[in-house]
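User: My advisor, Dr. K., asked me to get a structural model of this assembly before our group meeting. I'm new to this, so sorry if the format is off. These are the inputs:
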Amino acid sequence: EAQVTQNPRYLITVTGKKLTVTCSQNMNHEYMSWYRQDPGLGLRQIYYSMNVEVTDKGDVPEGYKVSRKEKRNFPLILESPSPNQTSLYFCASSPAAGFSYEQYFGPGTRLTVT
Amino acid sequence: AQSVTQLDSQVPVFEEAPVELRCNYSSSVSVYLFWYVQYPNQGLQLLLKYLSGSTLVKGINGFEAEFNKSQTSFHLRKPSVHISDTAEYFCAVSWEGSYIPTFGRGTSLIVHP
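Assistant: The format is fine. Below is the predicted structure of the whole assembly, which you can bring to the meeting.
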């Protein structure tokens, strides 16, 4: 089944404790991205990647890191999480970086930083 | 900067009533338009998209949307909603030359029995 998977689905952590949220897709998509969803603010893009080893900042990159060493994986790293990073996170992929392509979303990771 | 506006944050309706969710965007240059739906505790999934051709686009679950270039709008409609349509709906716009789609803030459709 074609899908985007994220792990973990739920995570509660403390301020400053490094964490990684994994994202993987099995559709051989070139383009992957991370979003955060907050009430009243909709979806905001954190980082995106147009292909392996090619990443760039989205609208809200502060406090996050990403890497794209393999085509299928695009992990999101929070080196020192803070409470304002409490949010619902989505990974998405699309066949290529082009404005005509729809995006395929993972199920989401709900992160709480205390 | 380009922007996408979903005029209603919440739309309550009764079952079997018609509904329209509004979406406007900031520029009429070449655009591709999308509506996504997010059911509770799930990720977003594509409802429909407009790339070119007929301005009336039909999607899944009986939804349709109309592209209006002069009004820079892409409103989503359904003639008769069901309880199962209760979800968050996002309009997204991609402008030519940009790799980053812009999402609206979402509209919560609440269908009452």
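One thing worth pointing out at the meeting: Chain A touches chain B at residues 4, 31, 35, 40-45, 48, 50, 58-59, 90, 92, 97-100, 102-103, 105-108 (CB under 8 Å).

User: Perfect, thanks a lot.
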